[in-house]
Amino acid sequence: MQFRLSKVSLCPGITKYFRTPDFYNFVVSFFMIVVRDIHKSFGELNVLKGISLEIREAEIVSIVGASGAGKSTLLHIMGTLDKADSGFIEIDGARVDGLSDKKISEFRNKHIGFVFQFHHLLPEFTAIENVCIPGFIKGGSRKETVDKAKELMDILGLTPRLNHKPSELSGGEQQRVAIARALINDPGVILADEPSGNLDSNSAMELHKLFFRLREQFRQTYVIVTHNTELAGMADRKLTIRDGVIIN
User: pLDDT by residue (tens digit) across 141-183?
Assistant: First the structure.
């Protein structure tokens, strides 16, 4: 790990400390997500070519770029849904790239929430049952999980829809149920892949504003892959991927 020091006069002892693992760990502790030199290929196609980034706690970061640039691939690797060929990832101080499949699943369930373009709600279950599923998988008590789901759905304006099936909900309501499901285990990180891509403009704007209200209330870190320039521009920081590298 290399560090660049600003051109100031430092005593040799301090300069030496800046290059130690202790100083690196001190710096990393400020970040919720740390990605270092991630490479990913599919066959002979190099999709990610040495991606490195840091994202702070409670920061909202958007990732933009042309289709095929590697945005979703990066998000899936950050979310432990896919594995990089090389490099490493830390989430909330924990290295996740070397975990076993079982440990990765447990970590993902507890620490990461997902919101996708298509809500992926199970059609045979009601809205509140869909929200509760990750909580049941985590092993929490049924009463606590259901109470938490009701609380989240009330915050999201879904109380009248608790017992409706997904087919009985509007697109915006379905996506809000998916957000409640992502929040049920109090994850430190929410990863969203084109979350408003399947919504009309009014519902998309409401969803965008909702992310920021939730950030203020729950202090989670949001990483949002999007083609929506308005949503991308609202983020605390916008990263652009081109040809497998971050260009800004």
Answer: 899 999 999 999 998 889 999 999 999 998 889 988 998 999 9
172 within 8 A of 206, measured Cβ to Cβ: yes
Q: Which amino acid is at 224?
A: I
Contacts of 40-45 with CB under 8 Å at 24 or more apart are 40/70, 40/73, 40/77, 40/82, 40/84, 40/85, 41/85
Q: What is the pLDDT of residues 73-120, one digit of tens each?
A: 999 999 988 989 999 899 988 888 778 888 888 888 889 988 887 778
56-85+98-246 is classed in which CATH architecture?
3-Layer(aba) Sandwich (3.40)
Beta-carbon contacts of residue 114 (< 8 Å; ≥ 6 apart): 79, 182, 190, 191, 192, 193
Q: Give the pTM.
A: 0.80
Per-domain residue ranges for the chain?
Answer: 56-85+98-246
187's tokens? 């994850």
